[in-house]
Structure formats: C-alpha cells, structure tokens
Amino acid sequence: MAYQPNNPSFSSDAIHLSSAFGNPTIRDVVPPICLSTIYEQDVPPTYKKGDHVVAQNDLYHGIFNLFNRLNLETNEIEVDFVDASISDNFKNIIRKNTKLVWLETPTNPLMKMVDLQTVTSLIKSQNPSTIIACDNTFLSPYFQRPANFGVDIVMHSCTKFIGGHADVLMGALCTNNEDIYTKLKNDQVFYGPVPSSFDCYLVLRSLKTLEIRMQRHMSNALKVARFLEQHPMIEKVFHPGLESHEHHELSLKQCYGHSGIFSFYIKDHNIDTTLKVVKRLRFILLAESLGAVETTLKIPSIMPPNSLTDEEMKAQGITNGLIRINVGLENPEDIIEDMRQALDF
C-alpha cells in the first residue's frame, strides 16, 4: 500500500495564490511587507466559567502545560486527558459543556496517530457544538489536512516545517468555519498574538518551497529510519511510514506522506550511552526545535522544556534511550554515515 495521492498542483497554488491579493494596483511578484501596527477591531468576546475541555495526554509540552495548569490551578475550566490514539476513549467523555477537544497527530515524540475521521464523528455525535482542534505541525498541510476529516481548527507552528529555515517565530490557526474565524480574529486583536510583518513575509516565501522540501524530508527520513531499524544498537524505530509502526495503515489512509520527524530507542535506555552517541555525531545537531533544513535531534527525557514527572514520562514511553530526530535536506547518505559512525563503538 501507499500514501494517499496528493494534489499535483499544491506547489503551483502555494507559489501563486500567496501573491494574489485581488488588488489590481499590486503587481509585485514578491508580496510586499505591510508595516501597519494599527487595525480596526470589533467588540472583544466574552467568556464564562464551567467549561469542559478534553485534551490528548501526550501533547506538545506547551499546550499540555497550559491545560494542566488550567485543570490544577484554577476553578474555571475542567480538563480531562485521554489517549487519543484509542478512538473508543472518546465514547463516554464528551459532555454538554465540553467546549473544546484538542488533538495532535502524529504525537510528540512517539509518533502515535489519531484516527481523525473516527474521533471527530464520535465527538460530534455526542455534542455537535464541541469545537475540535488539531495540531498539524509535524506534517504540515502538505502531508495532512485535518479539516477534511471534520476538525474545526487546525494549528501549525510555522516556526517548524512551514517556515522551514529556522528563522521565523510564528503560529497559525486555520478554520473553514466562519463563526469560529470571526471569534479567533477578535481574540487575536484582543489578546495581541500578531506576528511581525517580516515573519509573515518569510512564511509566504517558505510556502513557495513547502512541497519540494517536504518531499525531500520524507524520502531522507525513510532512508534513515530503515537504516536505524536494522542497526544492532537500536531497539525500536517510531516512524508511521514504516510497516513496523503500530499505526502504519492509518497513516497511509489519512495522510499524503510523512515528514522528517521520527524517534527511536537506543537499546539499553542508559543516559550515558545516549549521550555518548550524541557526542560522537559530527554534523547532526543537538537542538530543541525542528523542521528546518538541518538534521537535528533531541533527547526528550533530559532536554528542556520538560515539565513531565518521572511517572508521566514512563507512562508516555519517554526513556533515557529515546531520541527524536528531525531529518533535514542534506545528502541522505551523509546523514546515515554520521549516524553509523556515532552508533558503532
């Protein structure tokens, strides 16, 4: 089996639609930078206490910490955490006051997949007004489009694959729902999370090369993952594109491919061994972020920001032998050779 066939005109749309402002006086091939810092706004929204949120239990740390704090430190919002990779966990958890369900697929760092079609159907059948949001950072809109499966809000960290060059600090929320769009726009004006004009310019630049970059990320990462899967120092590789992954079939059904991000276990799960491997690397970088042209890796158990307790890390499968790697755009044989010489000792 193979991934779903992608839109053959994705790159054409990304290159040309980003410049189509609908204004006949703007003829720039490169979109201009708008430097205004003042915009007309609508009336700010109102909020109420007593809302219920369901969140995935292995979310990106920033979102997990936010929901955890809301759950433990305030009396305003109640949050339930679930393993979203098991669709049946949503059968009896949605309430009349469930305002939001927050998903992430694949997950960070063990690459679990969420069956978006099944999960969104289960949620909406219990409460049609519940808003479903999904973090799509790891795959970008090129490889996965959650809105096609009933997700109301799709989130991207544009800092990662969409930006692609480690030079942007920016996020995006996307929706096909006009009411949600209006509320999000009002919230943006009211709270102030507005990216700079230059960051917007850089993201528009990067969108033009998203397709070709993601294709290279995918092909490189699969070659590295297959190499690691056969290496005697590696216990397990977590890459949805591999037949050995527990959600491989779901990945093929739901996605158009996979990016450069995956993770793997070093066999003895000893931090000294893991650090020795990392220190022996010659050009692969130890870094927190991901999605850029350079190959980087992270040791989730010891690298900040990690606010999980030992029990929470154990429950999520985060050990001292776990490494998350973002395979970049270098020659794949060079990446493999660097991994080989680091592991062979």
UniProtKB/TrEMBL annotation:
Enzyme kind, highest EC tier: lyase
CDD domains from the UniProt entry: CGS_like
Any one GO biological process: cysteine biosynthetic process via cystathionine
Keyword Cytoplasm carried by entry: no
Modification type N6-(pyridoxal phosphate)lysine: residues: 160
Pathway: Amino-acid biosynthesis; L-cysteine biosynthesis; L-cysteine from L-homocysteine and L-serine: step 2/2
Highest taxon of the lineage: Eukaryota
Enzyme Commission number: 4.4.1.1
One GO term describing the cellular component: cytoplasm
GO molecular function, a single term: cystathionine gamma-lyase activity
Cofactor: pyridoxal 5'-phosphate
PANTHER family hit by this protein: CYSTATHIONINE GAMMA-LYASE, TRANS-SULFURATION ENZYME FAMILY MEMBER
Family listed: Belongs to the trans-sulfuration enzymes family.
Protein name per its UniProtKB record: cystathionine gamma-lyase
Native species: Armadillidium nasatum
